[in-house]
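Feature request, filed as a ticket because there's no other form

It would be nice if the structure record came with a short human-readable summary line next to the tokens. Right now we just get the raw output. Example of a typical job, pasted below so the devs can see what we mean:
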Amino acid sequence: MRQIAVIGSGGPIPEEVRAMAEELGRAIARSGAVLITGGRGGVMEAACKGAKEAGGLTIGILPGPDGRDANPYVDIAIVTGMGDARNVINVRSADAVIIVHGGAGTLSEVGLALKAGKRVIAIKPSGGVAELVAGLAVGGVGVTPAGSVEEAIELAFGRPEAGPEERHGASRERVGDGDR
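Raw output as currently delivered:
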């Protein structure tokens, strides 16, 4: 069973971003994949809500020591007590990582996912970090831009016609050699 991580803003989000994250959660569930998030509010809660509406399974990897901190749409709450260090678990557990909106915490997850060689997809119209990093490549691994939820799902599940450069977002400027 595929596991797709959705990362993004944990705080208040604009209504259009909430709708996009819910749509993404529904699409992940309909694809038969498990949704992984940080288990809290904002984009994470909206994606989990969408996945639950479509009958999907949701996992929340929580930063704190209490499973009651999970949003109400999390099926399996994994309590870490690790704070932001739990971001490593989020991205390493996923077959693909999809960015919706996001701030500084999301940016750290993007770096961890790239370092791990994960397929990272940014839904550019959602704004925030997703818009900032869409198309960026670091050390030969990149963030693939997506113009919609549908396109992000196609990319996450390996659209066969996509070549290596398109799949890994290597079409834009490369920054540094990384430390892998």
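Something like this underneath would help us a lot:
The longest strand covers residues 3-8.
The CA atoms of residues 35 and 58 lie 5 Å apart.
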